[in-house]
Amino acid sequence: MSQAWQDMRYAVRVLAKTPVVTAVAIVSLALGIGANTAIFSILNALFLRSLPVRAPRQLVAISTISPDGQNGKDPLSLPMFEEIRQRQQVFSGMFAWSGGGMNNFEANGVKYAASLETVSGDYFSTLGIRLLLGRLITRSDVASQAGSSARVAVLSYHYWQLRYNGDPEIIGKSIRVDGIPLTIIGVTPKSFAGLIIDGASEVTAPILYSGRETLREPGRLWLEVIGRLKPGATLQQARAQMKVLWPSVQVATMPPGYAGAQRDRFFARRVDAESAATGNSFMRERLARPLMLLMGLVGLVLLIACVNLANLMLARVTGRTQELGIRTALGASGWRLIRQLLTESVTLSAMGAVVGLVAALWISHFLVNTMWFGYVSLVLDPTPDLRVLGFTVTITVLTGVLFGLAPAWRATRTDPASALQRNQRTVHGGAGGFGKLLASTQIALSLVLVIGATLFVVSLEKLYSVDRGFRRQGVLLMQLFPQPGREQIPNRTVYYHQLADALSQLPTVEAVSYSHMGPVASYEYKILVSAAGSSAAPVQAVEELVGPGFFHLIGMHVVAGREFDWRDDERTSRVVIVSESLARRLFPGDRAVGRKVDDHGQPDRRGMEIVGVVNSASLWTAQSHEPMAIYFPLMQQPGFNQSRIDIRTAGNPWVVTAQAQRTLESMGHHYALKTQTLEERTSMFLTNERVVAMLATFFGGLALLLASVGLYGLMSYTVTRRTSEIGIRMALGAERRDVLGLIVGEVTWIALAGIAAGVPLALAASRVISGMLFGVSPTNPATIAFSAVILLGIAILAGYLPARRASRIDPMTALRSE
Q: What's the pLDDT at 148?
């Protein structure tokens, strides 16, 4: 231990002798280690960190999967949950819950929208949550909702502090949710904010607090179900038991009205069980690929930094030849020298890690906040925990060893006698072969990053500029949300018609309509449709609900038939409009207008007449090309009360925002939960692509900087070592341009060797990112050539400065110094 401490103190003294070089190394390592720690911190928070509950690894989520599996895993109905809970024998406790949406709240006389989580009676007890104040929601609370008993609620710690200022007398007070009074019975601990790890749940209430009997309908799939394994039980056993129970559960819970194809689809549903230890997330699926890609990028940056520092440390060891020779002559073993030099490199790496860890705290929080665009409060905390700190320590040690191995190996090859007699300069040769190899390796790795960054930037530009079949400019979107206590609208068609007319009277407003998902929704909800009475297999089509005049407003083209109008409401027969791509698929070579289609998911959507065909716009996701789509008139959807209102203006949409919001609220039923322009919405839903392009560009630039610094250092060291040789050449008649060409030629060959090795590496890596690119091939020759030329130019520039210094060497001075 004393020797290790002695080695560390000596390492610090050695590093302090060259403060500029040490500072450059620390900054390089801080950027590399800090970036790796930041991205891993987010990965850890989203994918690895367990819920703050008792024994989270024992939690198992039960879900259903539709026959086509297109829309992922679905929740269960309330009857399904109750049947499984009664029949299962593998769980010690089970509960159902639903959350993530927005509700109207009223607390202390203030009305606002917030997130509500509804749960069954065993929710808190199964999770093992001990409340900070009050009591848990129990089965008796849930059972009482069928009668007229008082309704109850548990507040989150954050909500209790925000809305009630941490009032210790909060128990027994009332809060209104969607106009329904709930009695506050408890407050959760600060560590628990619900089962959605990134979106805060402000209030928890029993699943049937509203008394709506429709929630009991067997066809309504809305409840997430989680069970806690009994001691000794495994996930595989739970999955096997669910599969055994599922057919009988389906028989017991099949909706009475299901028949034919709808009945077949219900019984074709499968059941699945998976670990629920890490909870649910809004961001997890969306960020999985970008984060893994970024992890690869920052790993590459760290590797480039290691290669750069290995070359730097190699040069330093060569400069310390006499010192190492003396230590060897005095009895130091090869292992003793290796240990000393590795201690120096690990110490340097640790200094960089400390700075990097501080940077990682800021970077991780910045990225999480940038990538979040939910309505509810963000609660995901990427602050490093023990796992992240362990990761950081591991890469710190590995980094120090990696860039310290080559210098340590060189030190063991020092002959004491030769070292004591050797002059520090040489009269022949250039940069050492191993140094050249490291420099070429750095160029090759940098090229991979630069090509990747260029591809992502080009892809992002294509995403912004591509013609998607509609117009983004001049459109304002307002997310409608019911005013507290005004959720019921007696005549929806009249109300929406009057609202559209009122908004149309505002200055610069050219058109007003409605949509459900709305343009650039970032996801597509698909249903199965077919030509009515056809025996052909149904096809998947994107479903959208729109109002009259929507296609004209958004700049789409009605190629046949008509748009929806205000007569297409609940009193008339069902009609639809289809995209050209869907029309061609269902009725190849035939006219679609006037034909009828069936929705295989809902029995009341049979025999719907096609009244129009529109162009196949990429309305929802930029990546889909000419999607097959079917549009339903919003006014024919009974009880639908939350949509987006779309407003086209002649100028800047924000000019009319305040007036539009006041007009909306004056109608007495809605207010704008969120208002944004369509261009802003497009930019927001390209956040992942923009962040990846931004970070890839930053890391590509950092790789170029490290490569240029590495080449500059290598060639500067070469010039210093070859001063005598250059003096002799010039004394024998060599011109300055000959010396300049000698050094620049050497660095050019190093760069070309690196580029030659980097192109195949980049082509191999491009296969990994091909699925994340849009409108550009990962093997685009222009991109590769552009990146190679940039890297070659920077390499030559980095070598030119030492070469110019070499060309100005005075021959007599150089020879005299020998």
A: 38
pLDDT, residue 615, reads 96
Q: Which pLDDT value is given to residue 6? A: 72
Q: 404 near 342, Cβ under 8 Å?
A: yes
If asked whether residues 709 and 789 sit together in one domain, one would say yes
Strand partners, 513: 646
Domain hosting 495: range is 488-668
The domain tally of the chain equals: 4
Domain boundary among 243, 275, 307: 275
181 and 119 in one domain? yes
Residues 106 and 40 in one domain: no
Same domain for 238 and 156? Answer: yes
Contacts of 573 (CB under 8 A, 6+ apart): 609
Q: How far apart are CA 795 and CA 793, in angstroms?
A: 5
Q: Is residue 574 part of a domain?
A: yes
Instruction: Spell out, as residue ranges, where the chain has pLDDT lower than 50.
Output: 144-150, 419, 424-431
CB atoms within 10 A of CB 502: 15
If asked whether residues 357 and 442 sit together in one domain, one would say no
* Together in a domain, 143 and 6: no
Query: What does the block give as tokens for 610?
Result: 């096609």
pLDDT, residue 426, reads 46
Instruction: Give the pLDDT of residue 146.
Output: 46
Residue after which a domain boundary falls, among 275, 306, 335: 275
Q: Can you spell out the DSSP letters for 302-367?
A: HHHHHHHHHHHHHHHHHHTHHHHHHHHHTT--HHHHHHHHHHHHHHHHHHHHHHHHHHHHHHHHHH
Residue 483 lies in a domain: no
Do β-strands 629-633 and 575-579 pair in parallel, antiparallel, or remain unpaired?
Answer: antiparallel
**pLDDT value of residue 147:** 44
Whether residue 525 lies inside any domain: the answer is yes
Those residues with Cβ within 8 angstroms of residue 817's Cβ, 6 or more apart along the chain or in another chain: 425, 723, 724
Separation CA 276–CA 55 (nearest Å): 11
Same domain for 749 and 601: no
Q: Tell me how far apart the alpha carbons of residues 521 and 512 are, in angstroms, rounded to a whole number.
A: 19
Q: Give every CB contact of residue 116 below 8 A, 6+ residues apart in sequence.
A: 99, 101, 103, 105, 177, 201, 202, 203, 204, 205
Same domain for 312 and 386? yes
Nearest partner of 233 among 272, 194, 270, 273, judged by Cα: 273
- The answer as to whether 369 is a domain residue is yes
What is 109-125 written as a DSSP string?
A: TEEEEEEEEEE-TTHHH
pLDDT score at 589: 85
State the maximum Cα–Cα separation within the chain, in Å, rounded to a whole number: 108
Residue-averaged pLDDT of the chain:
85
Provide the H-helix boundaries in 44-147: 78-87, 123-127, 139-143
